[in-house]
Amino acid sequence: MQPPLPGPAMILHRRVVLSAALAAPPLAAPTLAQAPAPTEAPRTLPARLLPVPRSVSAELQHRIAAPYPANWDHIPPDTAGWRALQAASAAEVDPLLPGLIEALRITVTPTTIAGVPAFDIAPRDMRPDRQGRLLVHLHGGGYVLYPGRAGAGEAMLMAGFAGFRCLSVDYRMPPDHPFPAALDDAIAAWRAVTAQHDPRRLGLFGSSAGGGLLLATLLRARAEGLPPPAAIAPGTPWCDLAGEGDSVNANAYVDNVLVSRTGWLGAAAALYAAGRDLRDPLLSPVNGDLSGFPPAILTSGTRDLLLSDTVRAHRRLRRAGVVADLQVLEGQSHAQFLDPTVPEAREAFNEIGDFLARYLGT
């Protein structure tokens, strides 16, 4: 059906807007320093029902229809509570890993790198075009969840779906090891890996907190004179711990993984920062200088609470002249492309793997 023609009021409105735009001086690319404090009133939205889209696989529809996680809004009251939450996250994931390892036809070997625990993960049948290349992985979990092998699931998917050997770093986390412990471990591992391997054959990837830590690691590596990887893949990076992006509000209670920053996520940011300014670029690397970064592919979803973190990081990279691709997956909440039971996961990792392969030397 053809849309109705605009009436006189709409035509007048467009003329006023166009005239104002033509009269205004050219806009410079926005920077954080230029961004004005918000002065406009917020928008009130009516209550609504949000249907499950038919534009995704049946498996993903099932995930979209799932209720919020039971304890998304439970904030541990003390250190013991955070430790219990951390242990529970590992206990939930660990029993699933043997089946995943077998289904993906990979090997998972505990190891250490520069004194940091890690997992060496490799396909049982290495693809010839992925030989001699290594991806270093930094796991997600709000800087507090998924210790041990439970944090290596994303690297298992990368090895199984995209065919790369991966080294997953089991960095230290709060409540016992707040910032900068995770960054210190990531840098120590990266320093050791680059001493043993040609950086032109190395990639760096991770999602959520792992994506934010990835970007912070590159900022610090550059400051310390360490070589960058050939390419990076920050998935839905938590690169703004202050929560100033649009989707933190626009997708609140739409995302059925993180749900809202008012739950444990916001508390985890404060726990990790340990009193440091949340806008510090080593905590929120979207505020840092991303010039000179390697080619990047960033992944998010239309319902992701951190969609704006991903979009803003992508724009900062592009403005800095960095080659950067952005894939936004239909209907997905935070990091649901890490769910191996949905077909979109293989599609996402194939896309990421092919991008990385284009830039990693042979």
Describe this structure in words.
The chain is of the alpha/beta class. It has a single domain, classed as Rossmann fold (3-Layer(aba) Sandwich), CATH 3.40.50. It has helices at 8-23, 58-64, 79-93, 97-104, 153-162, 181-196, 209-223, 247-250, 264-273, 307-319, 343-359, and strands at 106-113, 116-123, 134-138, 165-169, 202-207, 231-235, 296-301, 324-329. Helix 10 (307-319) links the parallel strand 7 and strand 8. The radius of gyration is 21 Å and the shape is globular. The relative contact order is 0.13. Residues 1-34 have low confidence and may be disordered. Keywords: Hydrolase, Signal. Residues 1-28 form the signal peptide.
Radius of gyration, taken over Cα atoms and rounded to an integer in Å? 21 Å
Strand content: 5-15%
Q: Class, according to the CATH hierarchy?
A: Alpha Beta
Ranges where pLDDT stays below 50 over 5 or more residues in a row are 1-34
What characteristic shape results from the CA principal axes?
globular
Structural class: alpha/beta
Strand order of the largest sheet: 1-2-4-3-5-6-7-8
Query: Mind telling me which CATH architecture this is?
Result: 3-Layer(aba) Sandwich
Series of secondary-structure elements, N-terminal to C-terminal? HHHHEEEHEHEHEHHEHEH
How many structural domains does the protein architecture include?
1
Count of DSSP E strands? 8
Q: Biggest sheet, in brief?
A: 8 strands, mixed
Distance between the termini: 53 Å
Determine the number of helices (DSSP H or I, runs of at least 4 residues). Answer: 11
Mean pLDDT: 91
CATH homology group: Alpha/Beta hydrolase fold, catalytic domain
Signal peptide: 1-28
Keywords: Hydrolase, Signal
InterPro entries: AB_hydrolase_3, AB_hydrolase_fold, GDXG_lipolytic_enzyme
Family: Belongs to the 'GDXG' lipolytic enzyme family.
